[in-house]
């Protein structure tokens, strides 16, 4: 049997239909579970956003309408707190199925952003200024993606809030980008939800910010990419991760970049394209 090339694999992915999506639906602060869907703007439908120029790329809730009523809880967290974002295939939580927290075909990076906001429960999220506090992409030495780690961790992604940012209310935007159909644009699948935080403590840092939409473009090398070819590296979309510096107030130990973030010094690794009846499915 001839190997199915990447283009045909992508077509098969688009042509088939099954539920392979995911939702960020629970937050843990310093190991304390804040409750299922509490303080998070969760949609009823677990589908992706594919248009990086849409306002839906901010916190979802457009083509995937929010479950009503939207939670009005604002989760309390101290600067420097350990945050765990928990993802599952749908709002039923952990199911133990092969598609939970997400289908293994959905390889790609994981990212987290913060934006200050006057009221973390306000409906309008346009015009906010976001700074990235975490990302993880491809370990080119092992071929392991950040999503692979998420699956191993049963849907849990852990990172820390910066110690030096001002106290106040924030939205925490946690994002997965699935690249299994990203050889053309649109094709990459963006999954994101926003949690409502009140951060206490902190310092006086003023991180550089980006806007959503605007932070990503369809031509970005981390958005339009064929992951079934040998990759010598992967460029995670968006800005670099903000870290606290010595002149930015208390608690300023710089945080290291994740060890599995892309490098380009290792030999290429190849992810095999799905073949035959084992091609992962996605859709409704």
TrEMBL record:
Residues 1-20 form the signal peptide. Residues 247-278 have a biased composition (Low complexity). Its EC number is 1.14.99.56. Gene3D superfamilies: 2.70.50.70. It holds the Pfam family AA9. It comes from the Eukaryota. It is found in: Secreted. It catalyses: [(1->4)-beta-D-glucosyl]n+m + reduced acceptor + O2 = 4-dehydro-beta-D-glucosyl-[(1->4)-beta-D-glucosyl]n-1 + [(1->4)-beta-D-glucosyl]m + acceptor + H2O. GO terms for molecular function: cellulase activity; cellulose binding; metal ion binding; monooxygenase activity. Its main location: secreted. Keywords: Carbohydrate metabolism, Cellulose degradation, Copper, Disulfide bond, Metal-binding, Monooxygenase, Oxidoreductase, Polysaccharide degradation, Secreted, Signal. GO terms for cellular component: extracellular region. Has a modular structure: an endo-beta-1,4-glucanase catalytic module at the N-terminus, a linker rich in serines and threonines, and a C-terminal carbohydrate-binding module (CBM). Lytic polysaccharide monooxygenase (LMPO) that depolymerizes crystalline and amorphous polysaccharides via the oxidation of scissile alpha- or beta-(1-4)-glycosidic bonds, yielding C1 and/or C4 oxidation products. Catalysis by LPMOs requires the reduction of the active-site copper from Cu(II) to Cu(I) by a reducing agent and H(2)O(2) or O(2) as a cosubstrate. This is AA9 family lytic polysaccharide monooxygenase. It comes from Candolleomyces eurysporus.
